[in-house]
Specification:
The protein has 291 residues and is of the alpha/beta class. The chain has helices at residues 2-52, 63-66, 113-121, 143-160, 175-186, 201-208, 214-217, 224-228, 248-258, 273-277, 279-286, and strands spanning 54-55, 71-76, 82-88, 97-102, 106-107, 124-129, 168-173, 191-195, 235-240, 261-265.
Length: 291
């Protein structure tokens, strides 16, 4: 009997030992997974702006070599940066209005030259802004930095070029929609054109990175829908019906918040030429020019 009890106790110890071993393996695996998750989230936190801002940082050609009558200008930000930009006026006539163009998160002002040329042909003066870190400009982009950059552009137009606010339009492309909308809350323009706006950066980020807690991680917010609801100026929203980067539903939500005129181009993707400088886009800008 005593030997039987000893054998039974020994079996129990072996069973418990195997179970404990399995639990130790499970705990190690869970700790390893948790460590990997923390590491990935930490890397995303540190390097997230490299995922958001995709500048072409190389030098750009002289404005006049790309835009007939184009002028290279310098903008001075409140934190001491000097930014390159392009300014162009319509040929042989006074501009009916001036358009401050804030681009999206990629490229530089050279890629927006066709837009500036079409707007100038339509009788508008244009300032193509490049943010810090874009187009050979110094600095690193961030939400706060871009707000300083667009204010430098505004000061240049209103101060140095004597553009009256009632003859000044803001044009935002994708990320640039957030930049000019924030500016409009402080310095209302005569009109606001938003091309492919998102509701806020976290919402569009969640579409691109659905497996990450984007809203918890983001340092730059760009709350377009929230801010545009406070702007009381004529506004137009232009979007592509087949936009795979900014969901059309988000652009429609921004239009609703702004009580804006909505121009939807069926079948157009985010970077299709019709949304870069197409006739519907140019006409939407012209329709905002005060009579």
């Amino acid at each position: 009997m005593e030997q039987h009890c000893v054998r039974r106790g020994s079996r129990r110890r072996r069973v418990f030992g195997r179970a404990a071993g399995r639990w130790r393996v499970v705990v190690r695996v869970l700790l390893g997974v948790a460590l990997v998750v923390v590491l990935v989230l930490g890397l995303v936190w540190v390097f997230q702006r490299r995922l958001i801002y995709l500048p072409d940082a190389g030098p750009v050609p002289a404005a006049a070599s790309v835009l007939p009558g184009g002028e290279d200008v310098r903008l001075r930000t409140a934190d001491g940066l000097e930014l390159g930009a392009w300014y162009v006026r319509p040929r042989d006539r006074e501009p009916s209005a001036t358009v401050l163009v804030a681009g999206g998160n990629g490229g530089n002002r050279a890629g927006r030259a066709p837009l500036a040329a079409k707007l100038a042909e339509a009788g508008l003066a244009v300032l193509l802004l490049d943010y810090r870190g874009y187009g050979g400009n110094p600095g690193d982009p961030s939400e706060a930095g871009l707000a300083l950059d667009v204010r430098a552009a505004h000061r240049f137009l209103v101060g140095e070029r004597q553009v009256r606010p009632e003859r000044l339009l803001y044009f935002g492309e994708s990320l640039g929609c957030a930049v000019v909308t924030e500016l409009a809350t402080a310095y209302p323009p005569a009109g606001l054109l938003l091309r492919s706006p998102f509701t806020d950066l976290a919402a569009v980020g969640a579409e691109v990175y659905p497996y990450l807690p984007v809203r918890l991680l983001l340092r730059d917010r760009f709350p377009v829908e929230e801010q545009v609801a406070r702007v009381r100026v004529p506004t137009a929203v232009v979007l592509g019906g087949a936009d795979s980067i900014v969901p059309p539903s988000q652009s429609r939500a921004v239009a609703a918040a702004a009580s804006a005129r909505l121009v939807e181009i069926p079948g157009a993707g985010h970077n299709d030429p019709v949304l870069l400088d197409g006739p519907e886009l140019i006409e939407a800008v012209r329709a905002l020019v005060p009579r």
